[in-house]
Amino acid sequence: MEKLRNFIVLTAIAALFGCAPSDDRGAADDSPRSGGDARFASAPIPARLVAESRADIPELARGAANLSDEILLSRQGLRFVEASSLPFLTSSVEGAAYLGADRVRALARGEPAHRCPAAAAVSGAASRPAAVAASLEACFAQLAARGADADCGCRVAALDEFLLDRRVSFGYATAVSALVVGDGREPAHLIAEALPPEGREQTVVLRDLNGEIGRAVLSGDQAQVRLNGAPERIFAGPRNRFGYRRGRMAERLELADEGGARLNVLIGVERRDVVRQ
């Protein structure tokens, strides 16, 4: 019962840190912009560029030739939002890569996101059709490498300074629940707090009710976890990603130390994930 109470408390704390797009209605001017003060154009009914399979990519790329700034700016109910109000673009590795990229750029994500673990940003393309095609190809490559469901698709979520998905899809939970099992220890319910990404890496601080117990560094398909103590324990291994929850990748880190001791760290878990494990 005590463990259950701790899990409930930690889950509530994580919810307080959850970041959703704010209701920032943008500045008075009526144009998107890139750079350090980037702002994006967002419509209530976004353009739908979804590939159910790789076979759909050529057709979607051809259609992107019609997505000029003029057309995208003519969408009904268009609003302009600061990048700071779109946490996925500022707090995730893939979002930050897109935010800092040059035109012509595109961001594609797995569809549906909750079970299709992929996000790919491309930049410097020769045209919007080329950017759309490259981002979708990269997205499907990630899905294949991560063993995603065969019916997973990919969606172009952003194109230059235009959002092509609902604003709610650009939320990002900075802190989520986590579970640590293995290494001969009792399962521990934790909070996993993501720090701002640094290039292609992101550090996640692991905390219990008494404070920080260790840190995970996520880099590509690999992870390293350092657990505080004397001596410090270091575990490393692959990331097994299975979808997004509140904009954050839900995943299992399958780790081992130099002595062969094994440790699993589940990040972004929900009750259904705990039961599944």
Q: Can you put this structure into words, describing what you see?
A:
With 277 residues, the chain is of the alpha+beta class. It is built from seven helices and 17 strands. The protein has an eight-stranded antiparallel barrel with strand order 10-11-12-13-14-15-16-17. Strands 3, 5, 6, 7 and 8 form a five-stranded antiparallel sheet that branches. Strands 1-9 form a two-stranded antiparallel ribbon. It is elongated, with a radius of gyration of 20 Å. The chain starts with a helix and ends with a helix. The model is unreliable at 1-18 and 23-28 (pLDDT under 50).
Give me the secondary-structure topology.
Blueprint: H1 2-17, E1 18-19, E2 39-42, E3 50-51, H2 57-64, H3 69-73, E4 79-82, H4 87-91, H5 93-99, E5 106-111, E6 119-122, H6 128-145, E7 153-159, E8 162-163, E9 172-173, E10 175-182, E11 185-194, E12 201-208, E13 211-219, E14 222-227, E15 233-245, E16 248-256, E17 262-267, H7 271-276
Antiparallel strand pairs: 1-9, 2-4, 3-7, 5-6, 5-7, 7-8, 10-11, 10-17, 11-12, 12-13, 13-14, 14-15, 15-16, 16-17
Helix pairs in contact: 2-6
